[in-house]
Design goal:
The complex is a heterodimer of chains A (about 200) and B (about 140). Chain A contains three helices and eleven strands, in the order αααβββββββββββ. With about 140 residues, chain B is mainly beta. Chain B has one domain. Chain B has a four-stranded antiparallel β-sheet with strand order 3-4-5-6, with no helix packed on it. A four-stranded antiparallel β-sheet of chain B has the order 7-8-9-10, with no helix packed on it. Chain B is globular, with a radius of gyration of 15 Å. The chains are: A alpha+beta (about 200), B mainly beta (about 140). Chains A and B meet through α2, β1, β2, β4 and β5 of A and β2, β7, β8, β9 and β11 of B.
């Protein structure tokens, strides 16, 4: 059989390559979230490849909060970015809004919160949901009084057994803004004053 | 409560060091209480929404380039005003959900995504199960 011409060979190769979901998965990786969703409209292989990429992405988790009736809730939801669907995660033991929340070593960490608007948190409780678990583990409570609405940032490079979280700012018992920065050891609940931001 | 326009950056003295110093950054274009922030894929720090000194919720967004020439530049505004909402940055996009509204409905159900390539906000067809604000949020 005669060898195909260069153009025929190129067409043959293109046809073969575009049927490979793996190729579309790489394309999706470079296009990002919205580009990957759009790829799902191109063809079947693109849809499979884009979905493979999207399924590797973490989701947006929201925990607690106030409803429009200003009622605190204990629900935890996760937005699956491949399916664009909210899925229920195990609910918190108690209702809370304004919790400090972050992911540490693939676990969801929720610190403190309040049950009433404009009130300080009742406790410095620390809850942790390990990947695949159905119930939250109670970690040692904070060794300091809890602040309302601090920002929580996971410290990925710590040597702590359960990881560490940086808590920045927030409001104190008088609902006054504070400039404190605490480093929380999740294994012990011990809080170190890391530094203070300028007044 | 007073909303602030000031910004600061915590810079560790060495990689992984706890001791660090705060440095003041240029002020944002507007005071924003209850705003949310995230790091874009190009390293800029984006600040979204919040509540101004008149206690009005905002839809405006801006981003700071940290480095040699530090200045805030405006980003396209979200489709809805929001403060105290959920926010994460993932795969070249920012995803926001819920939050306070300047209306009688108090809280939002809507979800939006900002595509960094298109520089556009898009409304997603997956509202929260109910109106929600002041929630914790994480990427997991």
């Amino acid at each position: 059989m005669a060898a195909p011409t260069t153009r025929a060979r190129a067409t043959w190769v293109t046809d073969r390559v575009t049927t490979l979901p793996e190729v579309w998965s790489i394309v999706a990786l470079h296009l990002g979230l919205v580009g990957a969703w759009r790829l799902m409209l191109v063809c079947k292989a693109a849809r499979i490849g884009a979905r493979d990429f999207l399924s590797t992405l973490p989701g947006l988790v929201v925990c607690g909060g106030f409803t429009s009736d200003i009622e605190p809730v204990k629900d935890v939801w996760r937005l699956d970015l491949a399916k664009l669907r909210w899925e229920a995660m195990p609910a918190l033991v108690d209702v809370r809004a304004h919790p400090a929340c972050c992911a540490v070593r693939s676990s969801l960490v929720i610190i403190g919160g309040t049950t009433r608007p404009s009130k300080i948190g009742e406790s410095g409780s620390v809850r942790m949901l390990l990947r695949g678990d159905e119930a939250y583990m109670n970690q040692p409570p904070l060794s300091c009084s809890f602040l309302l609405e601090p920002v929580a940032i996971a410290m990925e490079e710590s040597n702590s057994a359960a990881g560490q979280v940086l808590l920045l700012g927030g409001r104190d018992a008088n609902v006054e803004a504070v400039s404190s920065v605490y480093l929380v050891d999740l294994a012990t609940g011990r809080v170190h004053t890391a530094t203070k931001s300028p007044p | 409560m007073t909303s602030l326009a000031s910004a600061e950056i915590l810079e560790p003295r060495a990689r992984g060091a706890i001791d660090a110093t705060w440095r003041e950054l240029p002020e944002m274009s507007v005071a924003r209480g209850g705003c949310r922030g995230c790091v874009l894929s190009d390293g800029r720090f984006a600040v979204l929404g919040g509540r101004n000194v008149e206690d009005e919720d905002l839809s405006s967004c801006e981003a700071l380039t940290v480095g040699n020439k530090e200045e805030w530049e405006s980003l396209p505004s979200m489709n809805e005003v929001r403060s105290s909402f959920a926010c994460v940055a993932v795969a070249g996009c920012i995803v926001v959900a819920g939050g306070d509204l300047s209306s009688a409905e108090f809280a939002s159900r809507s979800v939006e995504v900002f595509d960094e390539v298109l520089s556009r906000w898009l409304r997603l067809p997956c509202d929260l199960p109910y109106r929600l604000s002041d929630m914790g949020s994480a990427l997991l």
